[in-house]
């Protein structure tokens, strides 16, 4: 009788463990039949495949990329159905970032009500995300995306002009900072793996120029995300194989601390200006 299905008679035994296996529990092997338990155990013990940059090669869809896209789409729908209330809860502006620092990140999951904004960013994420997620592995890809998103907000904060400028009070939304971080990282990953990166260079140039010459686009966030992506991309792509984990963790921590320090110094300077004006 099959041990997994005691009500079924089995006429075949597993070649590895020797236990009976009914047709539902049989899996074809190189020689004979194995039971599902032995197949799963062999899969757990098999060494995992790695990409050229140490990312674990996984079958199936790019889970992290799909999750980020899903969160952005759901958030955009909530922006529409709540009449902007959802947007006001999570957008970022330098004037409120010091008291509500979570907005440095949450604003990256918001977009303008125009579908063009979210479609462009999600398309860029779809093009770059799966490749980077596979090459870097999930945790480094998550760190890259989130820190690039925060870097976009920090870039806008640092370059906003202080509390005497209009930009200090202007809310910003969008995943563009995070997307530019992916652009910067994929540029270095492509170069490190000997692939042609010219298309990415042109794409970065065109999109950055659009932010400079058209109003309503926070080019400062693009620049902040791009800088973070280049720094982390260099660390992740060029770290020596034997020290890859140490370098990756260290670079991630250093970038995170640098972003916090940049925001803190900017607000400290703004507070001094406020006291002088007052």
Automatic annotation (TrEMBL):
Origin superkingdom: Bacteria
Cell location: Membrane
Domain Peptidase S54 rhomboid: 99-236
Range of residues in the leader sequence: none
Entry-linked PANTHER family: PRESENILIN-ASSOCIATED RHOMBOID-LIKE PROTEIN, MITOCHONDRIAL (PTHR43731:SF14), RHOMBOID PROTEASE (PTHR43731)
UniProt protein name: Peptidase S54 rhomboid domain-containing protein
Positions of transmembrane segments: 63-82, 102-127, 139-162, 168-190, 197-215, 221-239, 246-267
Family statement: Belongs to the peptidase S54 family.
InterPro entries xref list: Peptidase_S54_rhomboid_dom (IPR022764), Rhomboid-like_sf (IPR035952), Rhomboid_protease_S54 (IPR050925)
GO molecular function: serine-type endopeptidase activity
Record flagged with keyword Transmembrane helix: yes
Keyword Disulfide bond belongs to the record: no
Membrane topology annotation: Multi-pass membrane protein
Source organism: Cellulosimicrobium cellulans F16
Pfam families attached to this UniProt entry: Rhomboid
Cellular-component GO terms for this entry: membrane
Keywords tagged on the record: Hydrolase, Membrane, Transmembrane, Transmembrane helix
């Amino acid at each position: 009788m099959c041990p997994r299905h005691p009500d079924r008679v089995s006429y075949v035994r597993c070649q590895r463990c020797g236990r009976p296996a009914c047709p539902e529990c049989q899996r074809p092997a190189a020689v004979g039949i194995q039971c599902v338990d032995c197949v799963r155990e062999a899969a757990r013990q098999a060494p995992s495949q790695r990409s050229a940059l140490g990312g674990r090669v996984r079958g199936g869809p790019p889970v992290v990329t799909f999750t980020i896209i899903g969160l952005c789409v759901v958030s955009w729908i909530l922006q529409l159905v709540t009449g902007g209330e959802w947007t006001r809860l999570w957008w970022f502006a330098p004037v409120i970032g010091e008291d509500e620092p979570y907005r440095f990140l949450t604003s990256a999951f918001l977009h303008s009500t125009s579908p063009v904004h979210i479609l462009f960013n999600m398309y860029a994420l779809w093009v770059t995300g799966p490749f980077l997620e596979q090459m870097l592995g999930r945790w480094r890809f998550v760190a890259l995306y989130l820190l690039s998103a925060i870097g976009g907000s920090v870039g806008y904060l640092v370059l906003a002009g202080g509390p005497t400028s209009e930009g200090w009070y202007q809310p910003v939304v969008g995943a563009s900072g995070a997307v530019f971080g992916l652009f910067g990282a994929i540029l270095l990953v492509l170069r490190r793996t000997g692939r042609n990166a010219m298309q990415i260079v042109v794409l970065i140039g065109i999109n950055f120029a659009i932010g400079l010459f058209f109003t309503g686009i926070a080019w400062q966030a693009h620049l902040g995300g791009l800088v973070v992506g280049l720094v982390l991309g260099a660390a992740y792509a060029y770290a020596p194989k034997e020290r890859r984990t140490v370098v990756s963790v260290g670079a991630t921590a250093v970038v995170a601390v640098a972003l916090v320090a940049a925001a803190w110094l900017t607000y400290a300077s703004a507070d001094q200006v406020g006291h002088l004006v007052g």
